[in-house]
Amino acid sequence: MSRTLVIRLSALGDVAILIPVLYSVAVKYPEDEFILITKSPFIPIFEWKPSNVRVIPVFTKDKHKGINGLWKLIREADSLKINRVADIHNVLRSRIIDFYFRLKGKKIAVFSKGRQEKQALTRREHKRLVPITSSIDRQIKVFNDLGYEFPLSFRTLFDFGKRDFSRIEALTGAKTGKWIGIAPFAKHEGKMYPLDKMKKVVELLDATPGLTLFLFGSKDEKSILEEWAGQYPSAVCVAGKFRFPEEFVLMSYLDVMLTMDSGNMHLASLVQTPVVSVWGATHPYAGFYGYRQDTGNAVQAELFCRPCSVFGNKPCYRHNYECFQLITPEMIIRKIDPYLTWPES
Predict the structure, then answer these.
(1) Contact at 8 Å (CB) between 329 and 204?
(2) Cα–Cα dist 40/48, whole Å
(3) Residue 183 and residue 174: Cα distance in Å, rounded?
(4) Cα–Cα distance for residue pair 313/310, rounded to 1 Å
(5) Which of 33, 42, 21 has the alpha carbon at shortest distance from 247?
(6) Tens-place pLDDT, residues 327-340
């Protein structure tokens, strides 16, 4: 048996993107063990996983903080008798871990970030607007470089454990009509559709009979979503009320999920839920689209300066995020509409 250390510390979306690749290689090589190290808040994402995948939490605020903490983490990993290292993160902390195991003669493969491709995609002038290598394909190459050849076989998290509706039923009640998830927030302004316009989307959906709208967000975003839920009878705020496993169960019962270019797009993709995603400063061509999602479900405006950023963290040179202003609530509704019709009997 071989043990492969897999490093992906953050962020939420990137950790979620790794799951289809990690689980696919684990299924193809059941005799090997794959040990993922990631930040402790993400551990619940891995409630359902192949038996040969182990997850080790990294506590960056205390136990594994700073140089001393990193050395503790390296020693913990070393005690597991690692044979190979798949560095899916490629940051300073992971490169130090790589260096340690390389000195011990272990085989190392490192994720390529494709910086030149991304620069060509996001520059304002002479932009090269073509799809670049996806993050998933880059991850596959890391495992290929370690000698793992495998098909991308992942379908859903629930292939690895039971989907239990009783875990959410107290809040949701029995499913009737169509269920829509709405996750209006993103980490950076360049990824987030203006809240006043998103509220209009909720208003339009609320006027459609037979819908239940579940509003997703963090505890910090809860107050806004609760305000919306108080205004629109079909809306239910689930922010801060579920852990990741329960959110996965709820997402799996949705008929469609509306998200930004954000972690929720990737979480919904892990349970085969169709996603309609809204894109502003970023672009699906940057390689971070939802796993096996329909690219036709991306709502975006054709604008010469798009994309101006890979992660949505750069200020808009126009100062108004015209890329979002050109997207109307009605454009989003039109993408959602096909999921609201009942199949013909």
Answers:
(1) yes
(2) 16
(3) 22
(4) 8
(5) 42
(6) 999 999 999 999 99
